[in-house]
Amino acid sequence: MIKTIVKDAFFLGQKSDEATRNDLSVGKDLQDTLAENREHCVGMAANMIGVKKRVIIVNVGIVNLVMYNPVIIAKDSPYETEEGCLSLIGVRKTTRYQNIEVEFTDSTWNRQRKKFSGWTAQIIQHECDHLEGIVI
Q1: Active site annotation includes 18
Q2: Which of 59, 68, 84, 134 is within CB 3.0–4.6 Å of 42 for a Cys-Cys bond?
């Protein structure tokens, strides 16, 4: 289901709760909402659609990857950049890392560990910040 994008700073500033198998539908809602906003958005966290659960979706080329309970376990090569967000007006400066390694549960509820770099790594870091209540 396509959801409205949350812009409430108080809600977005709260840490998200761990996702369970009962939250698989949140991944589907993120897929639908990202597809609706694809002209302006390459990733989303569940709190952006009003759900305080640790679920994100990230565009990784031709597919969108849903991650449940993602944790960045390694990162290197910091750099400064500017980012925008559907939940905010304008862009803001932030520090990101060129290379990251992430552990997460996939949509079949299997634990995964993957490495990402460049633009995809930046998107994942942005969305994981959302889960911690950090809005750039």
Answers
A1: no
A2: 59
